[in-house]
Amino acid sequence: MQAQKPAGRNASALKYDILTALGAFALAQPKAPQRLVLRIMTLVTARYNWTRNELAVGQREIARLWSVDERTVKREMAKLRAMGWLVVKKQGVRGRVSEYGLDLDRIYEDTRGSWASVGPDFEHRMRGTEAPPSNVVPLRTSEIAAAPDLSKGDEWSLVKAVLHQEDPAIYTAWIDALARSDRAGGRLTLTAPSRFHATYVLSHLKPRLLAACRDVDEQISDIVILS
Questions:
Q1: Is the pLDDT of residue 39 over 80?
Q2: Could you give the angle at the alpha carbon of 173 between the alpha carbons of 163 and 121, nearest 5°?
Q3: What's the CATH number where 101 sits?
Q4: Exposed/middle/buried for residue 144 (C-beta within 10 Å: 0-12, 13-18, 19+)
Q5: What's the pLDDT band for 136 if we cut at 50, 70, 90?
Q6: How many C-beta atoms lie closer than 10 Å to residue 194's C-beta?
Q7: Does residue 164 share a domain with residue 118?
Q8: For the chain: N or C, fewer Cβ within 10 A?
Q9: CATH code, domain with 172
Q10: How far is residue 191's CA from residue 130's CA, in Å, rounded to a whole number?
Q11: Domain shared by 179 and 121, yes or no
């Protein structure tokens, strides 16, 4: 299978999914490989450039991040290259650090067996089919929800209207059911119809929601979703 690339509108969600797949895979491994995966996850989170598929960090900096010596870094990076997870894009010469990239196709393939342990919705996304099974959460995909009523005049109604215009399908499936609960300073609290719904939105749509909220009211700095 060809991995979905973390680019475009869903880039943030795909990055979290890739890290989730790595974490689930690591937790099913013995201690040594588990630690190796934790190390690459930490390095990717801290220093990987997703847009350019580039990891350019010196061994000394990696050693400090991992709390190990440089010999251990060299050995562990070699293991990751042997696994096919890291590929050399530019070999370091004359004091310059090597540039690596992630082989996402290989990572997807190696972690595939752990997807189901996260949940059926996650497995469907990783396989490239967005909608989870119908017995997990009912999605109103047969028709698009009506545009929200703006007569309330609050910021959330306007945000919903913006999101409805930008992506009616996502709005119908996940946004329409969110209700405004409270506003305290820069924190907007919403209520979801179920814990699964709240978790999904927080995991995969929160950056998009927050960006839309800030477009409407720049004082909003955080979103909380309760169920």
A1: yes
A2: 125
A3: 1.10.10.10
A4: middle
A5: very low
A6: 12
A7: no
A8: N
A9: 3.30.300.180
A10: 23
A11: no
To the question of pTM greater than 0.85 for the whole model, the response is no
pLDDT exceeds 90 at position 51: no
- In 3D space, the residue among 20, 188, 36 whose CA is nearest the CA of residue 115 turns out to be 20
Total domains in the chain come to 2
Question: Could you please report the per-residue DSSP string of 58-91?
Answer: -HHHHHHHHTS-HHHHHHHHHHHHHHTSEEEEE-
80 and 26 within one domain: yes
Structure tokens at 133: 């099974």
In sequence order, what are the beta bridge partners of 225? 190
First and final C-alpha spacing in the chain: 36
Structural domain range at position 57 = 11-126
User: Who wins on pLDDT, 172 or 11?
Assistant: 172
Residue 175's pLDDT is 92
